């Protein structure tokens, strides 16, 4: 198997992974899948995944059973309660609750992806309900076809406010949304001209908001014909979006961005490698679920080229710790903690979203991430499977502190760690003094300071 992305055979890369002696299906590979397609797997998750095998586990993640009525009702009730808080900050804990508790973890992971892709900030959109409704829009389209998604997000009131499209008038067309729908949302840089931006902006004139809903004002719409990306006689915004979506660059742009989010931060795959994915995505009418099902089942996804090749975002780190250890905590405190280290939900830094990858890590954020873990682990609001950490690890029926630490590594770390590195963690559990519960929590905090914990 090649270890250089430039020499990978595309046929091998996208064939379904079949375990063998060289690349066995293991708890480690199952945990890798749960970290990437969700936020991490618990002990019951990994046990079931090992039994189901890669194909069964991928299928369950990509095509899950519908959420229970109780889960849906809880999410709706908590959402309305959060809205009563009156600002988007009150929504952060609601969304973290969904990430922590959702049975369809891929749906929440993709909603997070789209929040960064179609970045919209409550700093400018001050109506919390509009931010809530956009979040539900992202979730509704998260795994569907990209075309209808772009059409609806283009009319989303929060997006209209954020990119000034709600004040787009025929006398003075505003070019912000026209530029970003091509550059950041669909095509990438270099795939359009300034003339295309001006013409597409004319298509969007007259798009307004009235009483919190999209409204088309025909009196402010430029009725003239427009030429967008070579397509002539375009008149209105929906037609303009269709032209953008029809460009050959669109599926490749999305494939590359999805691979960066789900597979590797620091690799630019060659064109020849991704062409089978691009062709499949185009043939599926840009169906995201189909594309991800192929990626998650592939040889490349389970190879060393992808294992431990991503840095966890603050949200992935915090929610991953909770899901891995079946923990619950004060989610408003978690939201404040992730914001301190660079990721505040509903408040992306700019229209490009979060840069991600290695930008999550510097000397300041490393300390902040360690403090975030300590805050979660030692909070008196934190419960592990409804009880103490001592009760959780006791239920695993392991024989030694070294086995406990090894199990934590299975659940929380993206790669194997040298025994010498883990020795202080084991020793912390075995020290005399203090309660065993306190020593376990201290040892867990210590484990989460090693570099491997930062990787997904």
Explain the overall architecture:
The chain has helices at residues 10-14, 27-37, 43-62, 69-83, 89-101, 105-117, 128-141, 146-154, 157-162, 176-186, 194-203, 237-245, 249-262, 271-283, 288-296, 314-324, 331-340, 363-378, 389-395, 401-412, 419-430, 436-447, and strands at residues 207-210, 213-216, 226-228, 231-234, 327-328, 383-384. Helix content is 55%, strand content 4%. Among the domains are: 145-242, no CATH class; 314-454, no CATH class. The chain is globular, with a radius of gyration of 23 Å. It is built from 22 helices and six strands. β3 (226-228) and β4 (231-234) form a beta hairpin. A two-stranded antiparallel ribbon has the order 1-2. It has a two-stranded antiparallel sheet with strand order 3-4. α2 (27-37) crosses α3 (43-62) and α7 packs antiparallel against α8 (146-154). By secondary structure, the protein is mainly alpha-helical.
What's the average pLDDT?
97
Order of helices and strands: HHHHHHHHHHHEEEEHHHHHEHHEHHHH
* Largest beta-sheet details: 2 strands, antiparallel
Q: In what range is the share of β-strand residues? A: under 5%
Q: How many helical elements? A: 22
Distance between the termini: 22 Å
Side by side, the strands of the main sheet go 1-2
Find the count of extended strands (DSSP E, 2+ residues). Answer: 6
Which shape, going by the Cα principal axes? globular
**Percent range for helical residues?**
55-70%
Q: Rg to the nearest angstrom?
A: 23 Å
Which structural category do the helix and sheet elements fall into? Answer: mainly alpha
Which stretches are poorly predicted, pLDDT < 50 over at least 5 residues?
none
């Amino acid at each position: 198997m090649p270890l250089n992305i430039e020499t990978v055979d595309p046929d091998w890369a996208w064939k379904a992974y079949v375990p063998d002696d060289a690349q066995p299906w293991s708890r480690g590979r199952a945990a890798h899948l749960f970290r990437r397609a969700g936020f991490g797997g618990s002990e019951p998750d990994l046990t079931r995944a090992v039994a189901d095998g890669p194909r069964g586990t991928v299928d369950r993640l990509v095509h899950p059973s519908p959420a229970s009525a109780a889960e849906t009702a809880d999410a709706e009730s908590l959402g309305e309660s959060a809205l009563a808080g009156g600002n988007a900050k009150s929504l952060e804990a609601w969304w973290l609750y969904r990430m922590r508790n959702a049975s369809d973890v891929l749906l929440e992971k993709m909603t997070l992806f789209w929040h960064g892709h179609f970045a919209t900030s409550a700093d400018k959109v001050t109506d919390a309900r509009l931010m809530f409704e956009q979040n539900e829009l992202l979730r509704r389209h998260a795994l569907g076809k990209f075309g209808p998604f772009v059409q609806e997000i283009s009319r989303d009131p929060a997006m209209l406010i954020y990119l000034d499209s709600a004040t787009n008038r025929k006398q003075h067309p505003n070019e912000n949304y026209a530029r970003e729908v091509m550059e950041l949302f669909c095509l990438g840089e270099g795939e359009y001209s300034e003339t295309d931006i001006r013409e597409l902006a004319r298509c969007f004139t007259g798009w307004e908001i009235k009483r919190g809903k999209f409204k088309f004002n025909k009196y402010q719409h430029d009725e003239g014909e427009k030429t967008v990306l070579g397509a002539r006689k375009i008149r209105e915004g929906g037609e303009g979006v269709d032209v953008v979506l029809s460009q050959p660059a669109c599926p490749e742009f999305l494939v590359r961005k999805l691979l960066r989010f789900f597979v590797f931060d620091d690799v630019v795959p060659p064109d020849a490698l991704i062409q089978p994915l691009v062709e499949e995505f185009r043939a599926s009418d840009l169906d995201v679920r189909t594309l991800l099902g192929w990626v998650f089942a592939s040889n490349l996804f389970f190879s060393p080229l992808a294992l431990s090749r991503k840095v966890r975002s603050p949200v992935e780190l915090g929610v991953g710790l909770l899901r891995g250890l079946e923990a619950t905590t004060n989610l408003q405190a978690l939201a404040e903690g992730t914001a301190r280290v660079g990721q505040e939900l509903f408040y992306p830094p700019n229209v490009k979203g979060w840069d991600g990858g290695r930008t999550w890590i510097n000397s300041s954020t490393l300390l902040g991430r360690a403090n975030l873990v300590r805050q979660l682990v030692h909070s008196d609001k934190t419960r592990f499977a409804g009880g103490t950490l001592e009760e959780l690890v006791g239920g695993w029926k392991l024989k030694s502190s070294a086995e406990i630490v090894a199990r934590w590594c299975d659940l929380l770390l993206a790669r194997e760690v040298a025994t010498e590195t883990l020795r202080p963690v084991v020793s912390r559990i075995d020290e005399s003094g203090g309660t065993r519960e306190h020593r376990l929590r201290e040892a867990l905090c210590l484990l989460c300071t090693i570099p491997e914990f930062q990787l997904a």
